[in-house]
Design a protein that fits this description.
The strands form five sheets. The protein has a four-stranded antiparallel sheet. A four-stranded antiparallel sheet has the order 13-12-15-16, with no helix packed on it. A three-stranded antiparallel sheet has the order 1-2-7. It has 604 residues and is α+β, with helices and mostly antiparallel strands. It has helices at 9-38, 45-65, 71-98, 104-108, 110-223, 233-246, 249-260, 267-296, 300-307, 312-325, 331-339, 342-345, 350-365, 379-396, 495-509, 529-533, and strands spanning 408-413, 417-423, 430-435, 442-443, 446-450, 457-459, 462-466, 472-479, 485-493, 516-517, 525-527, 538-545, 552-554, 574-576, 583-590, 599-602. It starts with 8 loop residues before the first helix and ends with a strand. Helix 6 runs antiparallel to helix 7 (249-260), helix 7 packs across helix 8 (267-296) and helix 11 (331-339) packs antiparallel against helix 13.
Length: 604
Amino acid sequence: MADIGVGGAAPSLIKASLSRTGKWAGGVAFVSGAVSDVLNPLAPFAAYIALVASVAAVIIAIAIVLRLVLAAKALPALVFATSAAAVAGGVYAMQKETNSQNGVIASLVPAVAGLQQSMGIVSAKVARIEQTVTQTQKTVEQVKQSTDTVAKKTDEIASTQQQQTQQGAQTQKTVEAVKQTTETLAAGQAQQQAQTEKLQATTEQIAASIDTIAKGFAALAAQGGAIAEPKRPDEFYHNARVYELSGDMLNARRSYLAFAGFDVDAIDPYTRFATLLRVQDGKAGAREVFGALADKGKALSIKLVHILQFDDAQRLDKLNAFIATNADFAPAYFLLAQEFSEDRLGAQTLADKRNEAKALTKFVSYEKDGGLLKYFVDQTQLADWLDRSRSRLAALGDVLDPARFVPSLTPMRSNQGWSMTISLPEPATGISWRMGDSGPFTDTGFLAMNDQATGKPMPNPSFELPDSTQAGTIAIKYLDIRGRETGPFDIRFDPETALQQGNKQILDQFWTSWIAFDASGNHGLVYFTQMLSYRCAIKEVRYSLNGAALDKEIKMPACDKKDPYAIPYDYQPYFKVADSVKSMAVQVTYTDGTKSPVREYKRQ
């Protein structure tokens, strides 16, 4: 690279560059200065050119000094930049000195000033054109608004005309609507009838289809062995059973899934499949598999078995919801009965037994006319369900009889009041009572012992009432062993009737104490103290001595309801007999009209 600062090479290099570049660079710089002077009314272009050219000259000079570029190549540019800066700077200085806004040349040459003025006229015309366009645009907007207003009013007029037309046609439409409604009702009845017939046909078709599958399955079961290439649902079900019995659970599972792919609405294949899944994958795994099958298929049996894979309370709620939606799907009632069975619960309450009996009774009722066959592929499974149902119904007995298995009250009168003893049809964990048809219930409390049937404190089975209690209704309710409230049961209480019945029960039970000969050493006296104490139940006492003629009567004092067991102070509870009397026959007529047997008492 050449060095402009060493020896005499630099001056010669500069001189050569000036001779080659100076002429054209000076010319271009002069033209640029003149143009910038003419355009000065628009902007101070001379100042801009001088500034840019000066900066460029400084940068090029630094690059040459630092040897960033070759001097031979950079010097022409340096000469041009320096020339442009000098000319433009001179022009700008003259403009400032003469204070000429239109430039130095325009002030000296009138033709240039005319040219600048022409350029100003063009600009003014352009400004006027822009103003005209703006005004035109505003006019267009106003016209548009006017047009919109006219259109709006036109629409309002059209709307008014349309409303008038609609009002005029309303009566006609009403008549036509009534006519159409009548026709729709008739069509709906016809459609409903058609749907009923179609549903019946579909049901018969499904039953026929399952009957065919059941017959095929029975034939394959008699044949034995797995089918090499199964194609029909009965063949897949047969293979599933064969594989399951042989312990090949993987192939059994595949066969069950293949059977499910046919969406056959039979209950027994899916209950067996669910049992296999619970053994292999647990209840959660079985629930997941049947959930997927239920989402994909339409068979109610699959959806029902899916419900059985949920836990206790959730399962029961879902099962009841299924039955509410599919009230005639018979297998659901047998499965519902299992939710209340002794096998499922361990210990049954009376409510559990009744719920089980209701469901089993409903299930067995479908057996009429072969109504259960369409739900089973394996008829031996149906036979098993029916046998279990009949056996349980026999064991449950008359549990559904509404007159049986209800609480009862046993009133016992004392001189202080009434002692009411409650008898329940099942073990309870709590008992409460109420006098009358409204008001709060009162708990009877607990005894100081545990009930062996429940393992919990035994509820007190009795409560007291004052002797002034009037006839009325006593309501009894209790909590069963699961804590479920049962009742209330309304029991009629009549103090007078209760007193008579209680006394009668004691007289009948302890009849050997009616008569006492020569009691406590009182020879020749016959005592009837017990009958006297319980006389509120007695209407008449007939007796005879040494025979059964019953020709005599013991006159009893009136019953004192306030103090029923007290013996009047002026009444003798005995009478005298001769030594010849060896026996006495007695018969009591009770206040309810019944008579006791003739009782005979021997004198010792």
